[in-house]
């Protein structure tokens, strides 16, 4: 990877700098959006990054490569959306709103990253980000400018698109050797706590994500609808999680992911007049669908359809994204509304949902075929879900010593880097403490 990754990363960054030099210019409008930008930016780098740290030996990649994808993608997203939406005199206006949209485009690649987490290398992720943001920008332009559909929180254009793009990629990159669960494809107590940090950041700032680029007259409505959809979704997720367990216990996987589904599902119609009770209904349904998807659908996708979805993005982003699209169709059919002088209709919303899923699957399949080329290299099945394949990882044993006592030997094996033992746990597991 030493030369492949470095050369590709440096070359693409030089190209970005040249393109920014030729086409980008300052635009001081929308400075009032900066608080929303900070919230969205935090979600991209901390929320998404820590959400994927649940794998016990893959925390470096989850947070580190997440940062790489985001930093790389926001530059390309700025350029692609600027080229498609146009600017003054062929220039791309760079302002707070364009920075928010750049983060939005990056979110699609981060969602897809969750589907292939642990099975790709950094070179492949750079290429996936570059290709996916290109396709995303085209689809987003189609939905907003051609179909003139509403999707203020991007249930369709970001969440459903990113999920099905990633599922198509992981289908093409299917690994028969991982059919039986890999020993590293599991969490530890501490890795799950770190992942829960990502969940909390995403959950708290999701109202900003959905309302960041909404019209000033609709921001309050969008924030309120998202707020209550998330709250209802969280309660329902806890309830269904306990109900599905024979002992009535909660599943951390479900709490980390399904509690966020309400924010995804309400996104399309968050700025419409649906009232808080309807937003809560959407959030509740999203929580149920997400939990059931994790519990029943994910194993079927892996065993029958050869879709190895590491993070379960289908259940957090895919299914709730479709639900959001359907909610938009229903709301516009029942209560026609006008946005920016455009009449919203159920037909436009349906066309936007269908095209998004179709383009995502096609684009993901083509991207997967490109990433599968031998030239990019592949991590072996044995080294999947292990940071040491691409990171310098220092394994520091907390204790490794043998001692003779009472004519017997006590052997203490090296403790893996993901395990943390306190003095109390040593006393519990090792009655004889060794200095």
TrEMBL record:
GO terms classed as biological process = ammonium homeostasis; erythrocyte development; intracellular monoatomic ion homeostasis; multicellular organismal-level iron ion homeostasis
Residues passing through the membrane, by range: 7-24, 36-55, 67-87, 99-118, 125-144, 156-177, 189-206, 226-244, 251-268, 274-297, 318-338, 350-371
Subcellular location as annotated? Membrane
Q: Which GO terms describe its cellular component?
A: ankyrin-1 complex; plasma membrane
Q: How does it sit in the membrane?
A: Multi-pass membrane protein
Coarse class of the protein's main subcellular location: membrane
> Which residues belong to any copy of the Ammonium transporter AmtB-like domain?
16-390
Q: Give one GO term, molecular function aspect.
A: carbon dioxide transmembrane transporter activity
Alphabetically sorted, this entry's keywords are: Ammonia transport, Glycoprotein, Membrane, Transmembrane, Transmembrane helix, Transport
What protein family is recorded? Belongs to the ammonium transporter (TC 2.A.49) family. Rh subfamily.
Task: Describe its assembly.
Answer: Homodimer. Heterotrimer; a RHCE monomer interacts with a RHAG homodimer. Component of the ankyrin-1 complex in the erythrocyte, composed of ANK1, RHCE, RHAG, SLC4A1, EPB42, GYPA, GYPB and AQP1. Interacts with GYPB (via the N-terminal); this interaction bridges the (RHAG)2(RHCE) heterotrimer with the SLC4A1 Band 3 I dimer complexed with GYPA.
Instruction: Tell me what this protein is called.
Output: Ammonium transporter Rh type A
- Source organism per entry reads Coturnix japonica
